[in-house]
């Protein structure tokens, strides 16, 4: 990469903060404007997909726009980023995510530090997170392989869809899950529920890395 590690870490911190700020902030706004959960979820979905397109386009050339430990793990397994770089990437993502929750609270005049009470647990939701993260990582890898310029739109559209076809509303991101445990708002998740989500997300990322690594491998005809 042409950018040094401090700049890449700054981009990962900023990008994850803006992503979580959008997830939490749009969730607060949607919940304020409607008592209909379906309408609120739509109000949460569209801004999340939209900001991903913006952030990946804006910051992708600097850091690769992971904004997600599961994505960083996938690229580490593919040896496209070293372990020595992956560790600070993940730390930057987690820190950025928590800052994003705090900023969202500040914009709406809420307590800056909160602990979520929203229950999100159980095998169906864990399985949904495996599926969601598998699809996200697969979308990224296939996009890079075939149409790298389309990756921002592909990721934004995938997450927009996955909000609605998964039982968990598609966190698909350990840093976002951790950050959402710091908000007792529409987007929250209890801290006690985090291990199940994070484990499922990492499993989905590893399966996707292995499967798409095989699927996308060029082969010569006999």
Describe the structure in your own words.
- The protein has one domain (5-215): Glycerol uptake facilitator protein (Up-down Bundle), CATH 1.20.1080.
- The protein contains 8 helices and no strands.
- Helix 1 packs parallel to helix 4 and helix 4 (83-107) packs parallel to helix 7.
- With 222 residues, the chain is mostly helical.
- 51% of the residues are buried.
- Helices cover 71% and strands 0% of the residues.
- The model has no long low-confidence stretch (mean pLDDT 97).
Structure, briefly:
The protein is built from eight helices and no strands.
CATH arch. level architecture: Up-down Bundle
Instruction: Tell me roughly what share of residues is in helical segments.
Output: over 70%
* CATH superfamily label: Glycerol uptake facilitator protein
Q: Termini distance? A: 36 Å
Task: Give the rounded overall mean pLDDT.
Answer: 97
Query: C-alpha Rg, in Å?
Result: 17 Å
Protein name: Aquaporin Z
Subcellular location: Membrane
Family: Belongs to the MIP/aquaporin (TC 1.A.8) family.
Keywords: Membrane, Transmembrane, Transmembrane helix, Transport
């Amino acid at each position: 990469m042409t950018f040094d590690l401090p700049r890449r870490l700054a981009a990962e911190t900023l990008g994850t903060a803006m992503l979580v700020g959008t997830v939490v902030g749009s969730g607060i706004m949607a919940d304020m404007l409607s008592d209909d959960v379906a309408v609120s979820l739509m109000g949460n979905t569209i801004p999340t997909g939209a900001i991903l397109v913006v952030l990946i386009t804006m910051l992708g050339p600097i850091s690769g726009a992971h904004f997600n430990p599961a994505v960083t793990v996938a690229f580490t397994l593919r040896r496209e980023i070293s372990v020595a770089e992956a560790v600070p990437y993940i730390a930057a993502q987690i820190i950025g995510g928590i800052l994003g929750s705090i900023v969202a609270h500040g914009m709406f005049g809420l307590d800056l530090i909160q602990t979520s009470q929203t229950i999100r647990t159980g095998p169906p939701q864990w399985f949904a997170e495996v599926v969601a993260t598998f699809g996200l990582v697969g979308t990224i890898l296939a996009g890079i392989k075939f149409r790298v310029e389309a990756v921002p739109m592909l990721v934004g559209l995938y997450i927009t869809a996955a909000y609605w076809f998964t039982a968990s509303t598609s966190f698909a991101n350990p840093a976002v899950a951790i950050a959402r445990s710091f908000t007792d708002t529409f987007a929250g998740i209890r801290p006690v529920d985090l291990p199940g989500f994070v484990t499922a997300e990492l499993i989905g990322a590893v399966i996707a890395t292995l499967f798409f690594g095989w699927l996308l491998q060029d082969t010569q005809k006999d």
